[in-house]
Amino acid sequence: MSKYSRQREAIRDFLKSRHDHPTAETVYLGIKENIPNISLGTVYRNLSLLSELGEIRKLSTGIGPDRYDGTVAPHYHFICKKCGCVLDLKMNDMDHINVLAAQGFNGEIDGHIAYFYGNCPDCLKERKNV
Description:
The protein is of the alpha+beta class and 130 residues long. The protein is built from five helices and five strands.
């Protein structure tokens, strides 16, 4: 168990209050308002620690910088190929995919990560208006 840190608590609270999956830079700018002397390096270190502790999720989307999610309950994400936004998808879990993946595999599968890619509603609307 790591010792209490006001900065870590502020980062965790910031992420739990948002649903837009911010980058480390966005977290830094948001936290800086309340903790003016915090450094970007401190934000990165605390994001890494919180992720390792399972208190937040780090999302490596393959598009742009890593994003962070304050919701650790299992859920899926949509990533817009145009603007790079990351949105939560409201859908049933796909735990059956673990069984499918395990067929013909001699190891043990106990989880998965799935990202869905396409165009978000805003980018789709923009494209139709052009």
